[in-house]
Amino acid sequence: VQLQASGGGLVQAGDSLKLSCAASGRAIRAYMVGWFRQAPGKEREFLATIGRSGDGTTLLDSVKGRFTISRENAKNTAYLQMNSLKYEDTAVYYCFAIILLRPYWGQGTQVTVSS
What we know:
This protein is mostly beta strands. The chain starts with a strand and ends with a strand. The strands form 2 sheets. Strands 2, 4, 5, 6, 9, 10 and 11 form a 7-stranded mixed β-sheet that branches. A 4-stranded antiparallel β-sheet has the order 1-3-8-7, with no helix packed on it. It has no helices and 11 strands.
């Protein structure tokens, strides 16, 4: 399976962005998908996961109320809606899928938030 994250960009603090994670090569409807991010000079940080049917979501505490994870299995795509972006949200955002206990990573998409 190949995962491609997109939707990043340069925004101002308070703006919104919606990231997409498109899967190809295999249907991901039966698998958990999620997002990590990595800020410059920092370790990769877990953000969110969503269960195969769209329920069972988890979110990092610091983004609860601002970020929402969702998926459209018919489009083989997962999303991360990010609202009220802050400077500290600046990072490269990666999506992943857990398929048969193995993680698959996509290339990241850069999100830069100017203060």
